[in-house]
Protein 1
Amino acid sequence: MNNRSNKFIPLIISLSLIAGLLLGSFYANHFNGNHLSIINASSNKINDLLHIIDDQYVDKVELGDLVEKAMPSILSELDPHSSYISAKDVENEMQDIKGSFSGIGVVFTIYDDTARIVRVIKGGPSEEVGLQAGDRIISVDGKNFTGPHITNDSAMSHLKGPKNSKVVLGIHRKGSGRVYKYTIERGDVPVKSIQAAYMLDHQTGYIRIGNFGDTTYPELLAALAQLNQEGFRSLVIDLRGNRGGLMAPAIRMANEFLPKDRLIVYTQGRKSPRSEYSSDGRGSYQHIPLVVLVDEISASSSEIFTAAIQDNDRGSIIGRRTFGKGLVQEPIQFPDGSMLRLTIARYYSASGRCLQKPYLRGQDNDYQMDLIRRAEKGEYISQDSIHLKGKKYHTRLGRIVYSEGGIMPDYFIPEDTTGITSYFIQAYNQGWMSRYAFIFIDEHREKLDKMADWEEMVQYLSRQHLPQKFADYAAGKGVKKRPNLLHKSYQYIQSTLISLILDDYYGEAQRLMFMNQKDPNITKALELFKEGKAFPQAPKEQQK
C-alpha cells in the first residue's frame, strides 16, 4: 500500500523536502554473515558500558531502546551513507529494491479524518475484490477507522501485513447510503522501477526509471521490446530523481548499450579487492543513438550507468550536475530483523574517477546541506556558477571529465523558475494542491470516467479555470488570496494541478507524458537526435 508520490516539482520549490531525498541508497545483493559473527562475538567498551548501566544505573533502563538510539549516532561518525535501519522499517526500505511489498494494493490519502482511496494498484489484492478509487475506509477489522487520530502511518500499519493474512474493511462509497464489507487477503503488490515507456515521436523512445531494484533489468528489457515493436530508432533514458539502489541492474543496463570489452565500473575498498565489470558484447542496443537525462537527485546506481555512457562516449548526457555518491554499502542483517548498511568500498567509473563528493566524518548535516548550497549559489539556473574542483580525467575520445561532486552533463539545462512565487510554494508545500486534486476528481469522477484517454482529460482540465477554483478552495483553508502572485503563477499552478490529477487518476506514466510535452530536456534530446549529434565527438584539437 503506497502513499501518494508527486516528484515533478523542481527542487528549488521543495527545499524543505531535500533532507529526505539526500539519503540515496546503494545496496549489494547478498548479506554477509561473517560480519554478523564479528559483531555478535566482539567484546569492547560499548558492551562493557551496557553491562555497567544495566547493573548499576540509578533507574531501570531498557537497553534495547538505548542501543537502537545509539546505532545511528555511531554510524554517523563514519560517512554520510553508512546507516542503521530498525526492524520495523526494513520492509518499507526494501520494497523498491525487491519490486514488491505485502499489502492490499491501494494508493490512499488522509482527508477530513478519513483514509480515502486515490487509486487501486493494478495487479494487487484490492483490484481483485472490487475496491474503487474514491472509496472511504471507515472501519478496519470491525473497528472504527475515522477521526483525528488517523494518520498515514496508522493507515499503513493497518493495511500492510504478512502475505496471506486477511483484513476486513468497511467501505463507504460516494452515492451509496450503505457500508460495504470487503475481506482482503494481503498479497504481493508490485512496485515498478520503470515509471513510463512510450514513444516521444515516431522514432524516439522514452523510458523513465525511478530506482534500481531486483526487477529493473527485466522491466527494461520488456520496455525496450515494446518500443522496438513501435519502431523506435533513438532512445531517451530518464534518470532524473532516481536515487539509485542495486548496482547489478545498472551494470546490466549499461551492458545492453556498450560494445564488447568496455569497462563499466570497478569497486575497491580497504578489505574489498578491486572488482571490475565490463561489457560482454551481447547487448542488443549497442548502436542506437542514446541520451540520458539526469539532475541533482540522480545518485548512486544512476551515476554508475550515466558515467559508463559518458566515459565510453556512448551517448550524450543532458540535465544538471548529479548528486555525487561514490560509496558502496553492504547490507548486513541482525538476528532481530534490523539492518546495517556499511560502506565497504568506493566505485570508480571507466575513466578512473570516483564521483563521491567531499565529506567530513561526523558532519552529516553539512553534507546534507550540499543541494541547498547549490541552489543558493544559483547552480540550478546558471552553468557558470558551477566550479568543479576534482581531478581531471578523460573519456575514450579524450573529453575532459571530473572526479568528485557528481557528473557534469554534456548539455546543461537550467531549472525553469518562471512563475514560482511564495504563494505557489506555500500552497504546494502545505499539501493544499494535492488535496484539491483529490477533491476535484472526487467531485467529477463520473465525467472523468467517460473520457477516452489522458489527452482528452487534459483538454477538459485546461478549460476548468483550475487556478482560480483552487485559490477559492485554499482561501477557505487559510491560504490568503494574493491576486498578483496568482496571476504570475497561473500557468505553473495550472500545469501542477493537471499533473496531480493525472497522477491520481491514471498514475505516474500519464503524468510524465503530460509534463514531458514542454520539458526543455526532452526538447534538447530530440534536437540532438534530429541533428545526428547524440554520439559525442572528440575534442577539436584531436580532430586536426
Protein 2
Amino acid sequence: MYFEAAADGCILKSERGTEFRFSRTEITPSGDGGIFCGEGILPTPRLLPGDRLLLPIDEGVAVPVEETDFSMQTPFCCREAVMSMIIIERGGDYLLIALDSGTDASYDVHAAEGSGGPALLTLTLSSESRCRVLYRITDHLGEACRAYREFHHPAGVRSLKEKFSACPEGASLCGSAIFWIWNDDYEKVMYSDKDCDLSPLAGDSMTGIAEELRQSGIDRALFGIFFEPDGAAAAELTGKYGYLTVKYDNYNDVPPADLLNFIPKKRVEGCDYAARRIKDYPDGVQINEDGTMRDAWALRGFDGKLHPQNTLCPVVAARRMLEEIPAAHEKYPAMSGYFIDVFGGTVTACYSDKHPMTKKECVKLKKETFCKLSEMGYLIGTEDGFDDILDGILYTEGLHSPFPFRYDKYNCGRRKAQQLGAEGADFQRGHMLNPACRVPLWELAYHDASFSFPYWGDSTACVTETLDDKILFARLYAAPPLFSFFAGDFPMLKEKIIGAYGKIREVTGAVGLCAMTDFRYLTDDRMVQKTVFEDGSFVIANFSDSDYSYQNIHIPPHDSIFCGKTGA
C-alpha cells in the first residue's frame, strides 16, 4: 500500500493502483497503512460507483453504494455493529477502516443528496471520545479482518481451545447443533391476551425428541431450556443422551409493577426470571439521559396491545447474575451452562444516581461478568454479541442471521417456533439467502474464538423450501445449525433436520475450531464462493443455477464441496 500526501488531503493507493482519496490531512503514514488520532467526525474517503460497503452487521452485510434505499445509523458494540470497523471494497481491493475503540463511536450510511452525480450512499464515522483509526488496503478480505483483530485487540483474543480449559464441556459444541423445542401451546400462553390453564412446559417433549435424535446418529447437541421446571430434564438429556443443556435466563427485562395487573398470569409465572427482576423495580432500572426509564421487550396485555417493560441497569444485572446463577446451578447440577439473552447485545450508559455508568464502563463490566461466569466452569452463550465481550462467551445465537435480513425482523423473536412458509421463503431469497448480500466478516476475524449460530427466529429449518441454501451458507461459513420448532412439528421436520445436521457437521466437525483465513468470489456474479481455513481445508458453495467445475471437481447447482486438509 502506498501513502501520498496532498495539499487538500491524502491518497491511499494499492499496489494495483486502486486509489482512495481523503479530503482530510490528519491521516499520517504508519507501517503498512495510515493512522488518524482524534475525535468527532473521522476521515472517510468519498465513495465511488461500483464500491461496496462491507458492514459488521451481525456476521457481515455487503451493500453496493448504488443501493440508495439502504440506510443505517448505529453506534458500534451492538448487533448492527458487532465489530468496530468498516471495509470499503473497490476494484478487488479492500480498504479497512478500524477503530481501536468503538465504545463511543458510530457510523451512518445513507443516500447522498444534491451531489450532482448519480445517487450513491455516503459513509460517516464519528466518535465522541478520542480514538485511533487504522486505514489499510489489502487484496484479501481475510487479511483485512486479521489486521482489524490485531489492531482492535493488541493483547490478543482467547481462542475456543483456550476457553475449554475452564469449561471442558464446551468442546462438545464443535460439530454440534442447538435445539430449542417448544410446547405446541407455547404461543397461546406467552402471547395471548387472555388467562388460560394451558401449560407451556416442554421437558417431556425434549427427552422424547432427544431419544429419536440419538437413534438417528446425532451425537452432539445442545438443548436450550426456557422454563425453570423443564430444568429437571437436563439430567436425562445429559446423563442418558450425552447432550449439553443450557438454561435460558434474562437479566434485562424488568416488568413495571402495574404491568402485572393486565398481563396474563401464565406469562409472568412461566418466565421465572420475571419474578426475580421485579424486586429491582424501579430502583434498579436503567435511566436514560433525559431522566426517563429505558424501555425493553414488550408484553401483550389483556387489551391485545404490546406494552414495554423496562431495562435493568447492567450494573445491577451483573450483580444479580453472579448471585443467581450459582444458586440455580445447585438445583439443576446437570445443566451445562446458561444462555444469557440480551445482556451481550448492546452497550449503553446509565444516568441513575444510584448506579451511574458510562459506555466504557458498561463494556468493561459486561466482559468481566461473562468472564467470571465462564471461569466458574459454565458454558456461556448470549444473543448476537459484539467482539469486546468475546473472551467471556463460547457461543452466540444470531450472528449467522444478519438482523436486517430476518423475516418480520421486529417480531422475529416472537415467531421462533413457527414455520414461515412460502412468504418467508420469498423474503429470505431477497437478502438472507442472496450470496451477494452477505459476507463472513465475523468468521474471518473470530471463527476460532466463538461458535456462531443462527437466530432462533431465523432457525436453520424455519423455511423448508429454502433449507438447501441455508445449508450452503452454514457449510461455507462453517457455522453450526440451530433448530427451533414446536414439538408437534418434529415428525414433519425430523428427516430434514437429520439431513441438514449431517451435511453441516461434515464441515463444522472438521474445522469448527479453526481460523477462517480467506474468502473469495470465484465468479463475477458472486454466485460461487470459497472459504479457506487455517489447516488448509476449504469449502466451495455454488449458489447458482448452473454447474461449476473447480480443479476437475463438479459442483452441481445449489450444492457445495468440502475438501479437508488431505483433500484436493
